[in-house]
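fyi for ur records
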Amino acid sequence: MKKILLLLLGFIISWSLISGIFSQVDVALVINAITNANFFLIFLALILYLAALITRSERWHLLLKKEFAQTRQRVFRVVVIGYVMNWLFPIKIGEVARPVLLAGHKKEMVPLAAGTVIVERVMDGAVLSILFLLGTTSSLDIIYEEFGSKGLWIPLAIIIIVVILFLASVYLRRYMESQDSRLSRVTFFVPKVKNNLDSFFRGLTIWKHQTFFLGSAVLTFLSWFLEAMSYWLVGLSLGIDMNILQFFLVLWAATFGFIIPNAGAGLGTFEFFTGGMLVILGLDNSTATACALLLHGLILFPLIILAIPSVIYERDKIDKVKSLLSI
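which gave:
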């Protein structure tokens, strides 16, 4: 029942946003802008987006390397499947499925992989906040007028929280190990609980391996920068005269558009937030909508193509994930 309600909510939100978007644009101008785009630049954007995807896969591989080594090829397949699942369902079920799918028969490794996924998302939040603040330097008056002071202090607060979490994680594992005997007495009757908690905290405190953390932090920044570059190239293909810093803001809005419940694949919400940011930055509604549609295709097309062989390779493990998540 909950899934049906979420799906219904997603359809309502998507439909209302799509109706609002196309009621304010000239569809003929949107089609004309897309058909006259520079497709060579779009091809280059596609290459950069694929590079960003590979970089994110390499980041997860690095985070897992110390505790749960997997081949780069398998990690990449699981990342692709997880991202596709995120976009197929109103809620981000891919984040739950990824650890389960990666662990396979080694169920005891699911909590550890889940912990590293949380670390990934924390890193993403920090880097996106940094890029957003960098983007505001080129359009500070516009952002301040649109969002007020919270448009600056919220991302800054996220960055500070992440720094605190990093410093805390360096010592958290040591504390957990010192409390191991006490935890054992509390959970002696359910050792599986203790093992799962221990595995989860090993993933969550992977930052204690500072070398791996720094490497994954660099990869996180690189992946989002590459994606922002791909967005910028799509903008250039439409003749949009905006700099890369402004497209940091577009990237932030587009990412937020995927978080909101929707009918699937960010339909409606992606166009609303991405196009909305472009309009805030001074673009007309039709060109902004054309750019948002091209960006949406840029993200979905390569993932759909990559998902086909990935699902074939992982089909036996996907069946186990389906049964576990009752999809």
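The chain is about 80% helix and 0% strand. thats all i got for now
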